[in-house]
Specification:
Layout: E1 4-10, H1 15-26, E2 33-39, H2 44-54, E3 60-64, H3 74-81
Parallel strand pairs: 1-2, 2-3
Helix pairs in contact: 1-2
Length: 82
């Protein structure tokens, strides 16, 4: 069991930003954590690209919530992820 769970929510961000973030976590010396990564309705092309890159990081659990057409709601996205 992991001692720390990190929850990240996002929508339609550039893939390089996500990769840098994941690499930063991957390079941590403390490894007893998990990352819950919720995509809150990104465009399909972006979410497919993120899913493909996330498979390289075993500590990440990826979820997609289809909220396309709705406004960004960070609180709701965090609640869904939790």
């Amino acid at each position: 069991m992991n001692s720390i769970s990190v929850v990240v929510v996002y929508r339609n961000r550039e893939i390089q930003r996500i990769i840098h973030f994941l690499e930063s976590l991957n390079n941590q010396t403390y490894k007893n954590f998990e990352l819950i990564f919720l995509d809150y309705g990104s465009d399909i092309s972006i979410s497919e690209n993120v899913q493909k890159n996330i498979t390289l990081y075993p500590f990440v659990t990826y979820y997609y919530h289809d909220s396309r057409g709705q406004e960004w709601n960070r609180s709701k996205a965090i609640n869904i992820a939790i």
